Each structure stands twice: as C-alpha cells, then as structure tokens.
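Worked example

This section walks through a single chain of length 326. The input is the sequence exactly as stored; nothing has been trimmed or padded.
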Amino acid sequence: MPSSRLSPAEYAAGIRAGSRTVLGRAITLVESTLPTDQALAQQVLQEILPDTGGSLRVGITGVPGVGKSTFIEALGRHLVETKGLKLAVLAVDPSSQRGGGSILGDKTRMPWLAAQPGAFIRPSPAGRSLGGVARATREALLLCEAAGHDVIIVETVGVGQSETTVHGLVDFFLLLMLAGAGDELQGVKRGIMEMADALCITKADHGNEQAARRARLDYQSALHLFPAPPSGQTVPVLLTSAVAGTGIAEVWQTIEAYAAATRASGYFAQRRQQQQLQWLHQSVAQALEARFYANTTVRERLPAVQAAVAAGQLTPWAAAEELLGL
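Given that input, the structure is written out below as tokens.
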C-alpha cells in the first residue's frame, strides 16, 4: 500500500479541518470503481457520517443553453460574498458514450467562484449513470457536508426524462427555463416540472424581458393544472439575469423561505428520510447486480445466452430468468 494513502481516520480529520486537498482526494476515492478504493471509501463515509446533514442541498437543472453555470456563478457569488456562506458546487459533466471521456470544464465557466476560498467546485463525469448526476454524487455530497459547507449545489448534466435523480438528493429542486426559444410549455417534460420546487426564467435581459415575462405567465398558468406539491408550498416562477445580477437575491430568498417552511411543517425531515431509504434500495440493487455478474457460473453461461438473444432464439425475459436461476 502506498505510503501516501490515508487511513479512514486521517481522511475524516482532514475533511473536518476543511482541507480542500483531502476533500478532493476523498471524492476521487468514492468515485473510483476499484474494489479496494470502494472498501476504503465506505470506511471514510462511516467515519464522517456524524458530521453530515447540516447543509442546505440545492439541485439545479435546465435545458441546454439555459446558462446553468453562469446562473450558479451569480448565485454562488451572492451566497459567498453577500451572505458569507461556505459553498460547494458538485457539477456533473456529460460523458462520451463512445470514449467515456468528459470535458469537466465547469471551473472555467465559474471563474470567480473557482478563485474563492469559501467555495469548492468539483466537476465529475456522469459516466454511464442516468438521472443527470454522477454515480458517486450522493457520497460526494456527504463529504462536502462534513467539510462544513453551508450550501451544496448539485448541477445536473441537463434536463430530460431521466434527469430527475437529483430530486432524490436535494432539499430544494430548481428548474431553470429559457424564454423565447420556441414553445416554452413543450420545452421540458411535465414530469420534471412537477418535481420542481421553483421555476426560474433565465436571461431576462438585453431585450428578452418581454418574452421572459410572457413565459412566466405561461408557466404560472401551466402549474395551476398540476397536482399540489407534497411539500404544501406554492411553486413560484422567478425571473433572473445572471449577467445583470437581477433576481438572484430573490431566488435565494425563495430557497430560504421554502427551507424554513418545510422544516416547520416536518416535510424537510420527512423528505430526507425518504431519500435515505431510496439510497438504501438503490445500493441493494447495485450490490446485487455487481454480485450477479461476478458469479463464476453466470460469467461462463452469459456469452451463450447473449448469443441466443442476439440471434432471436431466446427472449430477453427468458434469458434473464435462466441466468437468475443459475
């Protein structure tokens, strides 16, 4: 074992002390797929577990071109500079389905935040994970909480029918929308709109103000047709310009008001508990899948079964039943 490898206690101590280097190494550890790294990562997570849960978790997603990084830079500046809060941004970049690589360029799109000691930006590749978040985003979030970050923003890959996993990670889910880009009500699927705790029309500037206000009315009308959210809170539609800095303070006020109201009603704690149980079931499913494909008998039989399915001689369902019965 390399001498530079830290023990779980050393990782935990460095994270609690606010070491950005140790925090970065810990996130790299939980992102690793090596069995030895995964075992160590779980020990580290167990060590820091008592120090988690104190941050406000905010998920941000939006259609391509909506300006997620620019918006987060403006919101982060308000939190760090005006509010004096410690911020972590977990930004997920899309991975190539061919080569598997990611650009990981979020730091270059948030230059001011990247230079602040009170902000920590960590881009991660989505890999083969669905739902707009990386495989280890949940674990990275816990590590950032243990490091003392007051607010953690999770920026998803984009928006689509699968980009909803982030809802199961955060306390507040913000959906960014773009006005003047076509039929706004068809710009995003209903499912993700129903999950949003607030909608935000971005780029309401440079002659786009009228289109933004019109889009705001359209979305407000559409939201009235949806079932009441389980939080019991009204879903507002906000207008912002990250370039001009307008509406950013109102967005944070909305998030704070939502957190206060849901904490008072008990929904905040209930949602966190549901997310923990959801994580448990996902972990069980992932562990079972890993053990299934690691089974020697399955690995020996799998090529022949795959060939039969590809040739149309066996249905995928029957093939799965056969493999599961081994």
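What to look for: Residues 184 and 215 are 7 Å apart (CA to CA).
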